[in-house]
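Bench notes, afternoon.
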Amino acid sequence: MEDMEIKDKESAVAEQPVQAVERSYLKLMTKAAPDGWLKGFLKRVFFVEILQGMTLTMSYMFKKPVTRQYPKEKRESMPGFRGMHALVRKPLTGRARCVGCGLCAAICPSKCITIYTSEGKTHEKVVDRYDIEILRCLFCGLCVEACPFQAIVLTGHYEYSDSARESFLLTKEQLMDNWDKYMTDEKGKFYFKHFWVPRRSHFETSDDQAVFRGKR
């Protein structure tokens, strides 16, 4: 008899959470139940939902529009925006700062950069071609970070849609023209000061850095 009483108590305790779940489920179902036939009939007769939608539409008619009339109203890109590429031009000679080291092409995850070099008259490396296939580019900015000579940047220019695939293959001359168009004056200096990494200070040891000095 005692065993039967213990089993009855255990079964009652086990059923409690199940009953609580059922009650909460029924409560939710009651809340989500559809309107009664009279309320639904009145809504259909008096077009309540349609009037509510028209009220919302009319309320926006008297507000100031937020639509930008592009292309008449062009939005200025934010500083550091990763747009079309450009090769940095030396201010004194006007030549490209790129030395053809190939670090940008090596680190590029999509392999969209191709560099062709040759040996100059004084045995220096000369960059003959520098091509970037924009359609494959991820605009990750790793090429900018990998370059130790500050030779490539991502400009704020974002309007370069075209119907021909050939127009998305940027050559060395086009990349240098992009520098003249979009990164002249103080834009280039501002870009290198705030968005170009790594800098020399990133490799300097901080004062609180733990340094192993060996045995004394």
